[in-house]
Every structure is written in C-alpha cells, then in structure tokens.
Design goal:
Strand order of the largest sheet: 3-4-2-1-5-6-7
CATH architecture of the largest domain: 2-Layer Sandwich
Bound molecules: NADP nicotinamide-adenine-dinucleotide phosphate, ligand 3JN
Distance between the termini: 15 Å
Structural class: alpha/beta
Radius of gyration: 20 Å
CATH topology of the largest domain: Dihydrodipicolinate Reductase, domain 2
Mean pLDDT: 97
Number of strands: 13
Shape: globular
Oligomer: single chain
Low-confidence stretches: none
Length: 341
C-alpha cells in the first residue's frame, strides 16, 4: 500500500537490461518524484554503474532485503524473478509494477494501460501488471473503436523488433548482419534460426494448440484489459530484423457500421495516439520513426474490401517505451496521483 509522499523511493529490478535502462531514462525524462533510486540486477552485473540524473549509481545484487524502505519497485528481470521477488517486495511494504508475464492473468492483479483502463487499478493494488508490448500498442488503438462501435473480431499479424528479446538479441542482429554482408558464418545464440535478413514466425514457446505463447498473451491480455471475453482474436506473431519498435497489421470487425474517416478522427483524438495516414505522400507509421518516442502511431486506416463493418490499419510503437518502460512509469504516475487525491 502506497502512502502519499512528496518524493518516493524507487527500485528498478533488471536495471541493466534493455527495458530497465529505459525505465531509468523514462523516470528521469518525466521528472518522476524520485527521492532515491536503487538499481538492482543479478550477481553478474553487481558493482557496475548506470547513469541517472547525471550521477553514477551502483548496481546492487537483488536479494530478499533489497526492498526495505522502497515505496515503488519496477520489475523487468523476467517471470521467474518476478514470481519469487514480487511477493517479498509487497511484504516489505512496496508496490510492485511488473513487466513480466508472471502476474498478468492472475485474478485480482490489475493489468493496466493508463489510457485504456485506469479504473481497473483498484483501491490498494499490491502488484500491478504491465501487459506484453504487442498487446499494449494494439489495445491503445482498439480501445476507442471498441467503446464506439463494439469490436467482435480482430486478426493481427505482428512484425516484432529484436529488442523485444533483450540486449543479447540486439547484439545478435548486429553481428549476424555484419557477418552475412561480409560473407562470413553467422552465430546463433538467442534465436533458433538466422534473424538477419529473415523473418521468424516464432516468438516465445509454442503451445499445444499450435499458437505461440506470445500469440496467446495477445489474446488473453487484450480480453482482460478491454474487459470483454467475447472478442475473437486471431494472432500471428513474427520476429523481424528491426532493432526497435514493433509494427502490427490489424483487421478489426465491429458490431456497428463505421467509416475510415470516423476511425481516423476517433484515433487522432485518443490520448497517446498519433495518426500518420497520407499514403499518397508516402506517409505512414514507420518503426524507425517511432523508435525513441512514447507514441502509438496508427496509419493505413482503410475499410475492408469484403466485409461491411470491418477496417484494416497499421500500428507502430517503441516496444521498450510504450510497450514496457513508459507504460510502467505511467502506471506509477497514476498510482501516485491516486494517493495524492
Ligand atoms: P535483458 O536485456 O536480457 O535484461 C534482463 C535484466 O534482468 C538484466 O538487468 C539482468 O541483470 C536482469 N536479471 C536477469 N536475471 C536476474 C536475476 N536472477 N536476478 C536479478 N536480475 C536478473 O531483458 P529485457 O529485454 O530488459 O527484458 C527483461 C524482462 O522484462 C523480460 O524477461 C520480460 O519479462 C520483461 N519484458 C517485458 C516486455 C513487455 O512486453 N512488457 C518487453 C520486454 C521485456 P544482469 O545484467 O545482471 O544479467
Ligand atoms: O518478444 C517480444 O517482443 C516481447 C517479449 C516479452 C517477454 C520476453 C521474455 C519474457 C516477456 C513478456 O513480457 O511477456 C517475457 C515474460 O515475462 O514472459
């Protein structure tokens, strides 16, 4: 339970990772009221330093005593760490905002995208889950459409950047790209196949139903966030040789009729969304342009050719920011606003 304070003691678990580093920079850029910042990681990087507000902070090894005196802990060190340490952090009086899938579908754990379902936060949350990055950018675009026209069915294909698999995957794409261009053999550590100049229809592990775990996260998390178990969702998730930002091609079928112009207007008025949609001028959302920004960018909005109440669009966002670190910090902002009012 969080008590109102002027400034809060914040811990980042997984601070040396691709998401954790963005958490530090996002807290700094958004002037989050931080009294003290504790950077936690594994024994591998304990003692290293990270920059925060122009200072060096030393990374400490995560242990059972790490959360004493901490008000808010942002976790991004994988599901196993979250399962083990989030309850310990809560026991120490800390509110946890967790980026892993460990708690997302747990009953009673709010799964929050602040623009979409802030009221699901509840009165005294202990663990708050941050959705999967592919889900976050899709639900931001779906929310205003669902509220106005009621969504029945979604068919989505993702084009996910390698930064979604962490620092090692960013390095793997860099090294493989150089090796291929230099005609040298490639090394595979993170992905089972070459990722440079290739597309892998495989994210996370495959399940018995033939879908990948990433695909089922999109189905289950979208329904929980939109509070509607009846929405039909058919996902295909694909890893592409892009460093930052995930792109998604989305088909949406609604109960009520709508036009592409109405959808454009609706989306352009929704917080956190920018519509870039002038294909005649070669203007549409691009991964390289969304990278480093917090927006969800939507374009190529067009009526389906065959179905009356259906549209197609293209949505792009920086997976490490709105898909992870920024959304987590926005949840923290929502939390402190609640205790202040
Ligand atoms: P990453 O670049 O590989 O970083 C992993 C981080 O976790 C590093 O700081 C690492 O510390 C730390 N860590 C690993 N094992 C640990 C342990 N036993 N104890 C303490 N710290 C440990 O990965 P990432 O891309 O930042 O992702 C991290 C996690 O965030 C993912 O596993 C996932 O659960 C979540 N995530 C969520 C989304 C989302 O969609 N919302 C997106 C990406 C990631 P060392 O430096 O010491 O190894
Ligand atoms: O692959 C991506 O683009 C996003 C990856 C997210 C991720 C990576 C490792 C473990 C997750 C997640 O957020 O669902 C997890 C996990 O916690 O299960």
């Amino acid at each position: 339970m969080l008590n109102k304070k002027e400034n809060y003691e914040v811990a980042v678990v997984g601070a040396t990772g691709a998401v954790g580093r963005r958490m530090l920079s996002t807290l700094e850029e958004r002037n989050f009221p931080v009294a003290g910042l504790t950077a936690l990681a594994s024994a591998r990087s304990a003692g290293q330093t990270l920059r925060y507000q122009g200072r060096s902070i030393e990374v400490r090894q995560l242990n059972e005593n790490s959360f004493k005196g901490i008000d808010i802990a942002l976790f991004s060190a994988g599901g196993a760490v979250s399962r083990q340490y989030a309850p310990i952090a809560v026991e120490s009086g800390c509110v946890v905002i967790d980026n892993s899938s460990a708690w997302r579908m747990e009953k009673g754990v709010p799964l929050i995208v602040p623009e979409v379902n802030p009221d699901a936060l509840g009165d005294k949350p202990e663990i708050i889950a941050n959705p999967n990055c592919s889900t976050v950018q899709m639900v931001v675009a779906l929310k205003p459409i669902h509220d106005r026209y009621r969504i029945r069915r979604v068919v989505v294909s993702t084009y996910q950047s390698v930064s979604g698999s962490g620092q090692k995957a960013i390095k793997e794409l860099e090294q493989q790209s150089r090796a291929v261009l230099d005609g040298k053999p490639i090394e595979k550590k993170v992905y089972p196949h070459q990722i440079a100049f290739n597309c892998l229809p495989h994210i996370d592990v495959f399940l018995d139903n033939g879908y990948s775990k990433e695909e089922m996260k999109m189905v289950n998390e979208t329904r929980k966030i939109l509070g509607d178990e009846s929405i039909e969702i058919s996902p295909t998730t694909v890893r592409v040789p892009v460093f930052y930002s995930h792109s998604e091609a989305v088909y949406v079928e609604t109960e009520q009729p709508m036009t592409a112009e109405e959808i454009k207007k609706l989306l352009s008025e929704f917080p956190g969304v920018r519509v870039v949609d002038a294909p005649g001028k070669n203007e549409y959302p691009l991964a390289v342009e969304a990278a480093g920004k917090g927006e969800v960018v939507v374009g190529r909005i067009r009526k389906d050719l065959a179905r009356e109440n259906a549209i197609n669009f293209w949505v792009v966002s920086d997976n490490l920011l709105k898909g992870a670190a920024l959304n987590a910090v926005q949840i923290a902002e929502l939390l402190i606003k609640r205790v202040s009012s």
